[in-house]
User: Fold Methyltransferase domain-containing protein from Gluconacetobacter dulcium.
Amino acid sequence: MQDDICTAARFYASGAGENTARLLRHRMQAFWPRTGSDRILGLGFTQPFLPLWARPDGPPYISARLNTPVTREAPAVTPEGIRDCVVTADRLPFPDLSFDRVLMVHALEVTQRPDALIRSVWKVMKDHGRLLLVVPNRAGWWAHSDGTPFGQGEPFSARQIARRLSQALLCAERHDGALFMPPPGAGHRRAAALAENAGHMLLPQLGGVFVIEAVKDVWSGVPAVTAPALIRAPRRIYEPG
Assistant:
């Protein structure tokens, strides 16, 4: 059964996978051009993307592969400056408030407990933390292609992912589309780049994946407190008739 699954490690080791990662990195960099000394957690399968921000003098980044058939297989080489581990969706082995930024790719769609996963992410993010989420678009080509890891698991509509983020006390600030060419064309670098540019300008909602940036909403879970009345109504004085 597992031999029939297109694992993320095998896909990104191929020519089509390398080109797909290059296109996604370009879109991610538009969201996060600089990260400074921020601590970053990559969750799902993120080793092809974390080197985008890694610096020799910066903190090590964590690549946390989810323990699923799609993402648990390790890549052949771990990039320098990245520490790799395997985790479960509802028990991330990191202290609360550990990371300034979290990148999620091949995560929500492949886990059987997406709500538990995203709540776990909320806990390990700092109060000013930012999340960059890549999920397959239910209406796109990539969600229906068994030959890529984006075609494994459960894709999402824009409304579904917005609702999940809101329920997990995360506020979506920006969103975009990516991977506009059909999956069979992913290996053709020039054609894929042309399709990416044209799709991004003309039909951004029809990309193969959604790219969403969200921030931690620390105030959503705070109950509202009714302020005491500053002005009391005058007492009525009873006068016998």
Notes: Residues 15-31 form the longest helix (17 residues). Residues 222-241 have pLDDT under 50 and may be disordered. The chain has one domain: 8-216.
